[in-house]
Amino acid sequence: MHCRQLCLFLNQINRYRAARSIPAVLQPAVKASRGSTLPTGQLHATLKRPTILRWMLGLLGKSGLIRTVREGTDNAGTHDLVDAAAMLYLQCANGVDYLNFIEKYHMPDTFMSWFKITVLHIWMVLLRLTGTATVQAVVKQEMVYCLWDDVDGRLAQLKRISPSVSVKRRETLGECYGLLLISFCEYDEGILGDDKTLAGALWRNMYNRELVDPVVLSNLVRYVRFQARVLHRVAPELMLSEGVKEWQTL
């Protein structure tokens, strides 16, 4: 291992340990959600709890480490891109109105629904950065790292609600990994094709081929294309510095 790689590795470990040392008293209380299929909205409450990444993002923002990328996104520093990726990930994982989404698009209130929704929005962010190959590669790698860290943390939280989660953890992680790979590939193909192609990709990956209402699927296709157009109007430099301020609804 090269010296620089070792330093980066040790730095990541130190940041992780520092985040882990935060006392639980700093975590704000979470209100029970409405309309959840679990008692008192436990799943949604778990998904909305501040994560380590959210706390780290607060520090990064206050210390000015997330800076506007100037003079071309391909000249962005690696550390800036890592910070931008963490910010963008949080906006995909926690910035979407989860309850409204699952209600509008007929998805069950489950961990896998949250994962699918998050992956879809991560893909839309990466789609906007397609023209900046180097930047997209770094941001994609770091967002996926954030995703797996967050998945692990959320499964641990769900374990406290339902002990059976721990038994299925390895199976769930394997399913998530496979879904992530195939979703990115099929969404890429779908966005380049017609609405029928995109609808097929969403039907297979978001609904496991089980959705029977074509109107709901058509609305989801419109949502994806709408978000893609909205993000396309945002300059890559601005997206890396400010992220997605709000996921607009149709």
UniProtKB/TrEMBL annotation:
<protein>
    <recommendedName>
        <fullName>Ubiquinol-cytochrome c chaperone domain-containing protein</fullName>
    </recommendedName>
</protein>
<dbReference type="GO" id="GO:0005739">
    <property type="term" value="C:mitochondrion"/>
</dbReference>
<dbReference type="InterPro" id="IPR021150">
    <property type="entry name" value="Ubiq_cyt_c_chap"/>
</dbReference>
<dbReference type="InterPro" id="IPR007129">
    <property type="entry name" value="Ubiqinol_cyt_c_chaperone_CPB3"/>
</dbReference>
<feature type="domain" description="Ubiquinol-cytochrome c chaperone">
    <location>
        <begin position="104"/>
        <end position="244"/>
    </location>
</feature>
<comment type="similarity">
    <text>Belongs to the CBP3 family.</text>
</comment>
<dbReference type="GO" id="GO:0034551">
    <property type="term" value="P:mitochondrial respiratory chain complex III assembly"/>
</dbReference>
<dbReference type="Pfam" id="PF03981">
    <property type="entry name" value="Ubiq_cyt_C_chap"/>
</dbReference>
